[in-house]
Amino acid sequence: MAETQPAVPTVTKAVVPAAGLGTRFLPATKATPKEMLPILDKPAIQYVVEEAVAAGLDDVLVITGRSKRSIEDHFDRAYELEEALRAKGDTRRLRSVQATSELAQMHYVRQGDPRGLGHAVLCAAAHVGREPFAVLLGDDLIGEVDALLARMIEVRETYGGSVVALMEVDPENVSSYGCAAVEPADEPDVVTVTDLVEKPPVESAPSRWVIIGRYICDPAVFDVLRETPPGRGGEIQLTDALRELAGRGADEGGPVHGVLFPGRRYDTGNTVDYLRTVVEFACRRPDLAAEFLPWLRSFVAEKDNPQT
Hints:
The protein is of the alpha/beta class. It folds into 2 domains: 13-160 and 211-252, Spore Coat Polysaccharide Biosynthesis Protein SpsA, Chain A (Alpha-Beta Complex); 270-308, no CATH class. Helices cover 35% and strands 22% of the residues. The chain has 11 helices and 13 strands. It has helices at 44-54, 69-74, 79-88, 91-100, 117-122, 125-128, 148-159, 220-227, 238-246, 271-284, 286-304, and strands at residues 13-17, 38-39, 42-43, 59-64, 105-110, 133-136, 140-142, 162-168, 178-184, 190-198, 209-217, 256-260, 265-267. Strands 5-4-1-6-11-8-12-10-9 form a 9-stranded mixed sheet.
């Protein structure tokens, strides 16, 4: 069994970077943050905040930028809307609107100059302080029954240091992610990360295990990020900082472990994967699937066998 690290602080804060321009979804994201694009009847970022809250993180800091005010408005009270719904007796929608403003303690800070994920995380330093914290990327939605974040917090409490979520992908896809070199640890779903490479060429990738958008970071990552030069794409990469921490001992902010995730991950970072996510979420919703699935089957059958 792994030797438990003494007095490891509990994770209570989550950081959600949301300052990206969303260029893959233009012109829809010209004035609407990509994080506010709907997955059925909730914006994508609400699923992320709900995931953090379900894992016990009730303090959520969103890293925003220009044209992101609607994110703050979404998690704030909407008194006029509430009164209108109350007057109509629409208690179901009233409860859903009120619930968004009661999810968590929401905080916001602007990333004035978007210089990569590492820079976005560094913007959280004043709020987080010297506590471990979670980072949740809005492009990745995790199946709510999979409890990935809660498992990562457990691993942090056992081993200390930082923890990344890893998923195995086909070799041709490794160059789209941060890729990890790993060694077995004392639990079947946990590995020790020995190296990290951001978007490596297929032929030089250290493994097929890639980082998906969930991290538990030791606060030592802030000092490393301050000294991390721009990397791939001219941006400050969180991967580079975690690579530095992976070579350190527990008294210096290391090590880095990975949780091997076999569950459901939904990528909303590009148009096709976004559409797949919307369709799958609709098919999993009992109140929608009864009507939507028969239509979908009919539509697909029609496309597979067009009338001549």
